[in-house]
Amino acid sequence: MNKRNRILLVLLIFMFLMQGCSSETDGEKTIRIAEQYGIAYAPVQVMKEMKYIEEELEGATVVWEQLANTAAIREAMIAGELDVGFMAIPPFLIGWDKGMDWKIATGLSYVPVGLVAKEEIPSLEGIGSEHRIALPQPGSVQHILLSMASKREFGDPKRFDDRLVTLSHPDGVQALFSGSEVSAHFTSTPYLEQELDQEGFHLILDGKEAFGQEFSFIIGATTADFHEEDPEAYQAFVKGIQKSVDYINEKPREAAALLTKYYDMDEDTIYGYLTDPEAEFSTTAKGMKRFGDFMLESEYIEKMYGSVEEILWEGTLYEE
User: How far is CA 9 from the centre of its chain?
Assistant: First the structure.
C-alpha cells in the first residue's frame, strides 16, 4: 500500500469511529431513558405520551426502557446504553460512592411506601430469621428505610439484611399473596394499596415515618457524558420533565386518562392515586443529606459528599 492509500485508510477509520461515538446522526439526537414500576413514575410516562422532549428538541428520538431495579439501570448507564435513569436517592448515592460519573438532574415524586406483612407478623419485632422480605434490591430506598427503622427500634441497622429477597414490585405482590416465598413486601403505590386491600395483610412500617421527614421517593439522574456533550438534549429533558410534573398537578384527570394504558386500573383509581394527599409530584429533590449521613454511618457507602454541587447538576432544585 502506498503512502497516499495509507492516509486515506486512516481517514476512513477515523470518520467511522467518530460516527460511532456520537448520539447525533444526520441531525437526529437520540435520548435513552429508563424508569421502573409504579405510579411514582407517572411524570415519566406523561412525558412519553405528550412527547414533551420531542417538542423541546426538534428531530429528537427518545428510547424508553422499563427495568426491574436500579442495579440494572446503573449497569446500563455504565455501559453507555442509557443517558437518563429514574431511581431513589439511596441507589443513586451507592453509584456515586462507587465512582459513577453522574448527578441528579431533577426530583420527580413521592408516593406512599410501606412494609406489608401477613397478619401473623404484628410488627417489625415479629419478623424472625425464618421470614423473608421482598423488595427491589439491597441498597434500594425500601432497604434503607427498613434499616433506619431497624436502627431506631433495635439499635442494629442491618438486623434484616440477611432476610431480603430481590423481586420487582409486581413479582413481590404475587410472592406475598402466594405465601410460599416471602412473608412481607416493602412496596409503593399502587402495589401497596393492592396488598392492603386483601384480607390477611396489614402495614407494619410506613416509609415516611421511618425516614422522619419528607423526601423524594424518585429522582432523575443523568450521565456526565449526556450532560456535557449534548447540552441541548439535556435542557430538553429537564424542561420536558417540568412540563410533565406541571401537567399532573394542574390536570390530574387528564393525566389519569393518559396513564390507563400503563396500569391495569381504571381512570378513577389512577386519579385517586395522583391526587392522594400523601403523594407529591415535584422537580425538587429532597432528602439527600439525611439518606447520605445514615448510609455512611451504617457503612452502606464509604464517602459522603462535601458540597451538594458534587451530586446535583447546575440549576437542580433541592431541599437537603
Answer: 45
